[in-house]
Automatic annotation (TrEMBL):
Organism: Durio zibethinus (Durian)
Family matches, as PROSITE patterns: FAD_PCMH (PS51387)
Protein name: Berberine bridge enzyme-like 13
Compartments (UniProt record): Secreted, Cell wall
GO molecular function per UniProt: FAD binding; oxidoreductase activity
PANTHER family: OS08G0158400 PROTEIN
Gene name, Swiss-Prot/TrEMBL: LOC111281187
Length: 510
């Protein structure tokens, strides 16, 4: 078990710095690689990637290491081990519970944002991408070389590639091409001993584990080689919004029965929110059905008329565009905007939020939806995003990667709630937990599954480094189902002393 006494903290810090310098050649030492709490840039670097303001005042690291090459990462890992300091790894900070930049024991952050080079090989249809790059930067680089290639990952452009891929990673074209993790063909990482590994040297078990099992449990993954996918030159988007008074419930009932069975080229998710019903300001629930079709509007209309005519999509609802414009569209930008916006890493939000997730295997009855609606109008800044599965996701085996949520799922749910005032945190989180409890009869069971990238510490946490395997199974089975046991075996063989630890890291066998 790794512990440190506060009385020795200053000497430990000094020793850590000496160790870090000693492991690097002079040419690799730079004043902008390691920052202490006394550094003038420390706070701005720390806060630059905090996406959830709930954690702005959380415990702070002793050092922030911003590596420019793998040697810096190796030194950080080796010296953290020698001086019993915990390591947290951050690529863009979107982890929902702030685990990449908070801890309750002395720790350092390895912030990978400088490692974001992207090399796209259109001829061979793959790319090497640094773990500190964002999804927007990856999409931007692909689109600069080809308008008929893309990559199946998420719709938020400021999400970091590193965490997104290592937890699975899905987006608007995953019904056609699978997850981001399904399209990884190699990776480079620094292990607990400071060794640099690629797919060949790490072996297939570890390579399996980091593609959906969470990379932070096994080492510091600093580069991914991904397979590009071919997309048509023209895609089509549409959006149909209905309030309850306009028949949203009947449409949502129908959507539940068809969304996972639609052709792989067609993605329609349902977003449930709260809006004003009339000029008096009375609140009601609205459901927005947002679609992406990998083809022309003419082909879309023909397809949807056969499978979901009730939605009433017409040519006037449809907009044809390129795939990269659809990335802008689903990110909330105008499709006439320059794609340069995708390489903007900054976010201005000061909101606090809490999120949860579920998987649905049988359509929720109308009475269940009506009860949910009554709870939703108690809040305002919320979304329930219902993401359809099926297609390619039903063809990939549940144990092919650690991400187990494949065949048998109609759709996944992300519940996300935002608020402004820190003093209201307890109230809003309490509401979220009540909604989650209400949904229990209507979602997956034994286990009630959850998506690892929507991290939720309510499901359980490791309280200390020697957390038992039995305790971790509580949340491990929800995220990984039967793949959890294999992840534990890989962890035990690659990091037997549990150095790469966080509150929901894969445990070792005792």
């Amino acid at each position: 078990m790794y512990t440190i006494c506060s009385s020795t903290l200053n000497s430990t810090n000094e020793s850590f710095l000496q160790c870090f310098s000693s492991h690097l050649f002079p040419s690799n030492i730079s004043s902008d690689v390691i920052f202490s709490q006394k550094s003038s840039q420390y706070l701005s670097i720390l806060q630059s990637s905090i996406r959830n303001s709930r954690f702005l005042n959380a415990s702070k690291p002793q050092y922030i290491v911003t590596p420019y090459n793998e040697a810096h990462i190796q030194a950080a890992v080796i010296c953290s081990r020698e001086h019993h300091m915990q390591v947290r790894v951050r690529s863009a900070g979107h982890d929902y519970e702030g685990l990449s930049y908070t801890s309750d024991v002395p720790f350092i952050i390895i912030d990978l944002f400088p490692i974001r080079s992207i090399t796209v090989d259109i001829k061979n249809e793959h790319a090497w991408v640094g773990a500190g790059a964002t999804l927007g930067e990856l999409y931007y680089n692909i689109s600069g070389l080809s308008n008929v290639h893309g990559f199946p990952a998420g719709s938020c452009p400021t999400v970091g590639v590193g965490g997104h891929i290592s937890g699975g990673g899905f987006g608007t074209i995953f019904r056609k091409y699978g997850l981001a993790a399904d399209n990884v063909i190699d990776a480079k990482m620094v292990d607990v001993n400071g060794n640099i590994l690629d797919r060949k040297s790490m072996g297939e078990d570890l390579f399996w584990a980091i593609r959906g099992g969470g990379g932070a449990s096994f080492g510091v993954i600093f580069s991914w080689k991904v397979r590009l996918v071919r997309v048509p030159a023209t895609v089509t988007v549409f959006s149909i919004g209905k309030t309850l008074e306009q028949g949203a419930t009947k449409l949502l009932n129908k959507w539940q029965t068809v969304a996972d069975k639609l052709p792989q080229d067609l993605f329609i998710h349902a977003v449930i929110g709260v809006t004003s019903a009339n000029s008096n300001g009375n609140k009601t629930v609205q459901v927005s059905f947002d679609g992406l079709f990998l083809g022309t509007a003419e082909r879309l209309l023909s397809s949807i008329q056969n499978s979901f005519p009730e939605l009433g999509v017409t040519r006037d609802n449809c907009t044809e565009m390129s795939w990269i414009q659809s990335v802008l569209y689903f990110a909330g930008y105008s499709i006439t905007e320059s794609v340069d916006v995708l390489i903007n890493r900054t976010t201005q939000s000061t909101q606090l939020f809490k999120a949860k997730s579920d998987y649905v295997k049988e359509a929720i009855p109308e009475t269940g939806l009506e009860g949910l609606y009554k709870m939703l109008v108690e809040e305002e800044s919320l979304q329930l995003i219902l993401t359809p599965y099926g297609g390619r996701m039903s063809e990939i085996g549940s144990s092919e990667t650690p991400f187990p949520h494949r065949s048998g799922n109609l759709y996944g749910i992300q519940y996300i709630l935002y608020w402004e005032a820190p003093e209201e945190t307890e109230k809003h989180i309490g509401w979220m937990r009540r909604v989650y409890k209400y949904m229990e009869p209507h979602v997956s069971k034994s286990p009630r599954a959850a998506y690892f990238n929507y991290r939720d510490l309510d499901l359980g946490r490791n309280r200390k480094r020697n957390t038992s395997y039995a305790g971790a199974r509580v949340w491990g089975l929800k995220y990984f189902k039967n793949n959890f046991n294999r992840l534990v075996r890989v962890k035990t063989s690659t990091d037997p002393h549990n150095f790469f630890w966080n509150e929901q890291s894969i445990p070792v066998l005792q």
